Every structure is written in C-alpha cells, then in structure tokens.
Amino acid sequence: MAGVPNLADTPWLDPSSEPFIRLRGVTKKFGDFTAVNNVDLDIYKGELFCLLGGSGCGKSTLLRMLAGFEVPTSGRIMIDGVDMSDVPAYERPTNMMFQSYALFPHMTVEKNIAYGLKQEGVAKSEIADRVDEVLGLVELTDFTKRKPDQLSGGQRQRVALARALVKKPKLLLLDEPLGALDKRLREQTQFELMNIQDQVGITFVVVTHDQDEAMTLSTRIAVMDAGNFQQIGTPTEIYEFPESRFVADFIGNANMLDARVTEAGTDHVTVETALGTIRTEQGIQVQEGQKVYLALRPEKIHLAKAGDPVHEGNMQVTGHVEDIGYMGDMSVYKVLVNGETMIEVTAPNLTRPKQRSLAITWDEEVVLSWHSNSPVLLVR
Amino acid sequence: MGKGRSLFLTVMLWLGMAFLYVPMLLLIIYSFNYSKLVPVWGGWSVRWYKVLFESEEVWNAVALSLKIAVVNATFATLLGALAGLAMVRFGKFRGRTLFGGMLAAPLVMPEVITGLSLLLLFITLSKMIGWPAERGFTTITIAHITFSMAYVSVIVQSRLTGMGETLEEAALDLGAKPFRVLTDITLPRLTPAMVSGWLLAFTLSLDDLVISSFVTGPGANTLPILIYSRIRLGLRPDINALATIIIVTVAIGVAIAAFMLMRQERQRLAEEKMAAGP
Prior knowledge:
The complex is a heterodimer. By secondary structure, chain A is α+β, with helices and mostly antiparallel strands. Chain A is 22% helix and 34% strand. Chain A has eight helices and 20 strands. Chain A has helices at residues 59-67, 109-120, 124-137, 153-165, 183-200, 211-217, 235-240, 245-250, and strands at 21-30, 33-43, 48-52, 74-79, 82-83, 94-97, 171-175, 203-208, 220-225, 228-233, 255-264, 269-273, 276-280, 291-296, 302-305, 315-326, 330-337, 341-348, 365-370, 376-378. A six-stranded mixed beta sheet of chain A has the order 6-7-8-3-9-10, sandwiched between helices. In chain A, helix 3 (124-137) packs across helix 4 (153-165). Chain A starts with 20 loop residues before the first strand and ends with a strand. Chain B has a single domain (56-275), classed as Orthogonal Bundle (MetI-like fold), CATH 1.10.3720.10. The radius of gyration of chain B is 23 Å and the shape is globular. The two termini of chain B are 35 Å apart. Chain A binds chain B through residues 67-69, 88-91, 94-96, 98, 100-106, 115-116, 119-120, 148-149, 152-154, 156, 163-164, 167, 179-182, and chain B through 166-167, 169-178, 180, 184-185, 188-189, 267, 270-271, 274-278.
C-alpha cells in the first residue's frame, strides 16, 4: 500500500484517467429534509474512499443510493460507465457490508456466504470452492457450520465481509464496518481490511463517523456536513490543509483564532490575532484588512520552560499553564496567553513522572513556539 | 410467590384468580356430576360424557366447527400476512390509509353489525348472482375470515415492524429478486408470527356465536350455536361436559400460541442484541 506515490496510486491527479464512479448533481430529499444536496463526486478504480461525517450528514444516504436502496430525487449515478438510474439493487455490480452485519440468522455461516452466489446460478462445486477461498481470506475456515448467534462480534463482522466479497463485486460498500468492534479489535481489523482490499483489488467506499478509521484506511476522504462535501482529499491534505473551520475542527483538534490580514504578500501572509502578529507561509488569496480564521494544531506547537532555549526563527509567545491532562503517551496542556486566550498544546511524555522535575507542571510560565508554516489560514 | 410480597397483594392476586377461574372450575366439576338436575350434586360420574359422545347432533356440530376453524385459520393467515406485508413493506401507496382502516374495522366493529352486514351481503348476492345458494359452511367461513384476518394482520404487522428491513436489503444486495427475498428471508422469519396468527384465528372461529348465528342457514349448526340453542331450552348436564372439553381444547391452543409468541419475543431480543454488537 505504502511506497513512493506515483500517478497510478493517485488517479485523481491524472486528468486522463476515467473515474469508476461518477456522481453528478445527486440530491436526495425525504419530504422537506434534504439529506444529500446536489453533490458531484468521482471515485477511481481501486480506491478506498471514505465518506466521513457526523450523524445525519447524509453519508449513509449517499451509500444507500450507490447500493440502490434509495433512489436519488435528482441527479445521476454512473458505475463503471453504466447509468444506475433504472438498475435495481439486485442487479447492481455492488455489494454492501451492513453496519449491523445483517447476517441471515436462520442460515449457517456457509449458507450466508453462499447465498449471493446461489442467486447468480453459480454451479454447486464452484460455490463450495469460492466460499472456501473467501473463508480462508477472512480466517474463518473452522466456523462454517455455525449460526450467526454462535459467533463473536469480530467473527460476525468477518462473515459479513466474506459474504460481500465472495461475489467479487466491482464496488464494495461498507457502512461503519468497524463501528461495533472494541478499540483493539478495530485497530487490528483496520489493517486487515486494507490488506484484503489490496489482495482483491476491488474499489471500496466506506462510510464512517470515526476520523481515525478514515485517516488510517483511505486513499481519499470526503468530509460531509449537512448533505454537502466540505472537502475531498487525501488524509494528509485533509489534516494538514483543511479548507474550512468545519474540517479543521472535525478532523483532529485545532486552536481556532479570529484573525485580520495586515499584510498579504506573495509567499506569506501576516495576520493580527489575540496572540499578536502572526506570520504564515501560506499562499492564500486574501486582501489586507480581510477577516479570516487561523487554525493551529496542538501538536505543532513546541512547549518549553521560560528561559529554555527556543528554536531560532520560530514564532513564539509566553503563557501560563492552567491545566494538564495526562493521557499516557502524551499530555494535553492548557496554556493561557496574555491572560485571555486559552491555547491547547500536546506534547509527548518523553520522561517518566518521577523525573517530572524536568517536566512542565501547573502554574508554570512557558514559551510556546511554532514554525511559520504550521498555522493554516481559513476564509470560511 | 416472591419473598417480601405484601399480604395484601397476595390476597388480591388470589381473589383475582378466583374471580376469573372459579366459574370454569365449577363447570368442570359439575360436568362429572351424576345427577340429572344440574344444580344438585349426585356424586362423580362420566355419565354425561357418554351421553355427549352418543349424540350425533353434537358430533356434527363439532365436525362443522372444526372444519370452519381450520379453513378459516388457513385463509385468514394467508390473507392477513399479505395484508400485513402490504401495510408495512410497500411504503406509501394510494389508498393505504383507507386499506389500513378497513383492515382494522372488524376489530372495533360490534359483532352484531358485522354479522348483520354480512348477512345482508349474502342475501343480496344470492338474489343477484344466485350465489351463495344457501347459507351454511361457506358463508360462516367467509364471515369468520373477514374478522380473523384482521387479527392475523395485526400480529404480522408488529412482527414485520420489529424485524426491520435490513435483512431484506442484504438479500436484495446479494442479488436475490424480490420474490426470492420474500420466500428466503421474510417468510421464514415471519413463521412464528404466522403460526400464532393461525392459532388465534382458529380459536376465534371456534368461539364465535354472534356472527355465525347471523350468517348460518338451516341445518348448519356450529358448536356454539348448538350449545346456545340447547341452553335456551334449559340447563342440561351434557352441556357441562361439552363445555369442559371446549375449555381444555382452547386452553391448549392458547398455551401453544403464547409459547410461540414468547419464542418470537426471545428471538427478537436476541436479534436486537446481535445488531447492537458485542
């Protein structure tokens, strides 16, 4: 999966590549409520595309429209060049893994997985082979004769995945695939899911409200809010270069400051904020005097005791530690700057608590510093 | 009886039970009475059961009632299940509200009205198209189906609502055509509801006196009609025996229906737990 990115891994940057899924002006209304509002989207072959958003943002509705369970109020959906408007769910080249897994409770694991192949009229011997193969892929070979209620949550999840994969769909839809698993199992399964996707080479569209899941899994993420896409991009783009306050806030944490542009240069912008004048090396189209927002991620701020040496050339302000949240691997510091602005800073816990004399504690004067390419200016 | 339950509640419980069941118990005891006079105790005997079993009239009534009950339960289950499916699974369609109202009407309509209107319908039909030529088994069965299917559809609707549509969607997604989804997924999961619906329809039909009396014709006496007509001629001990048999039969039927419903409830809970994850 990882490796040197080339154009084959990033088809969305290649203007000559043909999108595998094409949404044009897709709108879905339920009565007066608009669940999905006139969206356009291109997804390319072999992508693991995440639809990320809070509940009610329209991500599940979008997925259900791809599966054929909902009919768009207007707009068109094309999958592999075929208009899906008049294609019912049972004839689409898609399979879905449901959030509740939706395993048939009156059928064994084997029968559940074979069900889709039986509908296609695949020969019995071939069904057996393909079921075996996919059971091996999800490591469930010993559980063929069990009923779903005799399986653990993780096992049920694998059966659901196997059932969707066995038909070799062109497009696999996953609705909160890891939502029902506990944290450890979830992390493990995330990587398994990526491996499986790599092996089978099917395009995945995943719906999730979990930003960690989206960040680890996806080739690209679409952040949704109120039926619209807020931003579409790779995990790095979404995290490092959010285009709006919503995205900056939704993905990770950010210190958000009101700012006014004082100097709009070609390679840098200077803004006036509650922390004083801040220089950013971000090429963004703004005008002098314009009101903007400045987002600064807590982990991009360096924390030092007052008097300790600070990296040259960095922006810096002094503050007062109000509160510390110990998280184990790192700590969250709430630092009051200028007696009025609370800035959140995270720092790895490099030392043990017993050596805390070295560390920063409550009510200490500290220096916050950051590189001038760390802050992000947002106009909306 | 749990520990710490107050004496008052215990007494009230037993009084309530007595209120409901003592009359039936008395009837069962008196069915074993030797005496020819119902209110006079003449010692234990199965004499009246013998009299009962030798009466051809009673056997005919039992046979007719059972025949009606079975046919009624079968058709009512079929139609009630279809009506339930239409109400819950077909979304909005023209006339849905009207259809729902019509479906529920027999539940709230006084039996006399249902009986009378059906009688008028049969008479009119008979005049216009010559069918039904005479009233009896067919007319009673049709009348019973009209109200029984309402009860079945209520049971089926509640089960369908509780089941949710995800499994059907999963089957569609795997390429099953809508009819396969019905036979592979919906109907098997609906079976407990349909079995309890069948039993309920069976019991309702066996019980019914009012509607049957309206739409029956000469010579077609169901068991309730027979009992009622005999009681009007005076209390007879063999009726006690007959009533005892009915009570036992119905009790068994109700117990099976309750068991099915309980199993269905347990299954629903298990599915909810599964849906909620580990």
